[in-house]
Structures are given as structure tokens and as C-alpha cells.
Design goal:
mainly alpha; two-stranded antiparallel ribbon; 15 helices; 4% strand
Amino acid sequence: MRKKYRELKRKGNVIVFPTTITRLLTDGMNFLKNEQYEEARDKLYQVLSYEPDNAAALGAYAYSLFELGDYDEALEVCRELLKVGPIHYLETMELYISILMQVREYQEAEQMIEILIEEKVLPEERLEQFRQLRDLNERIVTNASIEKAAPSLFALDHFLTLSPVEQERLIMDLPIDSYNAMKSSLIKIVEHPDVDLLTKTYILFMLHQEKVRGKVRVEKFNYEAEFSIGALPDPIKSKRLDEIKSLMEEALSKDPTRLDMILELFERHIYLMYPFQWDDFEPVEVAEAYMSYLDLLFTGEESFSGDENLMNLVITAEQWFEWRNG
């Protein structure tokens, strides 16, 4: 049985005449030229058994393996060739990228194409060719992502039959590279009023993180608005939310236990309410409402003197969690 390339070594102390290697290489190249790939592979294998770093033999051997469908071995040989230094760099890179796509190493293929384009090492006549290769790679990624995600599971009619916890679990199991491919279905899910609110939040987070383009209409509690996905607010770096938290921290600086409780409550509601951030109320009002709600939990008495709608919103949000958690 023919050994794998990675096991090849020199022939110890056996003397090999240079003309022998030249003859084997010439024969291998001729077989390759005539598309006799098995014969080419075997001749080139013999060359590499004597000269493992022979760049010409490595390149031709990798191509023979590729044509024979031995992609894993061809990928390994290509990587060795890139270490040695290929004679025909662009041709080797094109073969390498093609192999990566065959073995579904799409991310690495995309990176290699981008490097070649950004470093401007491609002559003008090859630039368009590599751009087309990149586009093909992106289409394959999209199709693979859709296939992997099982689109029928995300059809709105099916999705609405799931419990809130099942909806959230299905979305959280969705591969990251599927968000662009599944954009249309995911936006429909977010826009439906009966979809679980936390599930909507997670989808919006991921659409924004993956830089998916488009607009989405979101409805939560008494809020409803259309957002550009790229312009969704950042819940981590929000000056408005930081200001509200600072007001809470200042008011409860001498009561760390209550401070921890109110911050936990508020952050839970931030996730629930996203992308809305109590924009129709001043930060001090929001902070006071949450502190009053905490007093209500401890004393049973409500001391909030601000907008009744704001306090109702806080209470409703917490009741929603109680309902969802059973």
C-alpha cells in the first residue's frame, strides 16, 4: 500500500543518481500534462521519497492528489509547499484555496483570498479571477449555513408552535455564520408580536454583531419602532444606561445589598426591553422608579411619585419574568 506523503523520508545511505530524479520528475510532469493523474502521482511520489523539499514535485504532486479527489492529503502537501516556497506562487495559492473549499475550510479560504487582494500581489488579469473565487466561496458558505440551520425549523408557522424556552434554545443553537443567510426568516420572527421577547433580544444582538444589513420593526410592551440593524443601540456601552446605574449606585452607596439587588433587576430588564431603553423617561425618573419598586417589595408600600406608566412598566416587566419562569 502506498504510504501517505507525511511519512516520506530520504532513502538513508542509498545513492541516487541525479539523472534518476530528473527522469522521474519529467515522467511525472508528462503524465500530469496528459491528465494521467494516478501515474503522475506515483512518479512524483518517488521523486519526493528522495527529495521531500523539491518544490516542483510538491506542486505537481498536490495537483495530482487534488484531481484524484484526495483533498486531505493534497491540503497537507500544499501547506508543506508553502513552507518550502512554491515556484509558481499564485497558481499554488489558487490550488490551496480550491482545496480549502473542497474540505469545507471556508473561513481559511476567505482569509487567504482577502490577503491576496489586500496585499495587491495579484496582477490585474488575475484579480477578477480571485474575486470570483471569493464570491463562489461566500455562496458556498451561505448555502452550507442554510443547510446546516434547517430552514424549515425557522419558518414562522412552525416557530410560533414552540414554547418560549424552545424558541430561545433553537435560536441559541443557530450557527453564527447562519445569521446573514437566514436574515429574512429571522427578521420575520423578531417582527411577530407573539414571539418570545428574550428570543427577540438574542436575535437582535446577533444580527447586529454579525453586521447584517437591513431594517427591523420591534414591538415590546408599549414600545414599537423600526430600527436599522447596524444602528441598534449597544447595551454594553450605553451612556444612558450607565447614567441610570450611576444614579442607583449613588443613592444606595450605603446599602450594598439593595444595590446589588436593584442592579440585577435593572440589568435583567435591559435584556428584556432591548433595543428600547426607557427613552421616553429621564434617567433620574427611571432610577427612582426602580428604587421605589424595590421598596415596594420590602415594605409592600409604593412611594413613587413619578409617571404611573413608568412604574407599571417596571412591574409588568418583572411579572413577565415570573410568568415565563412558571
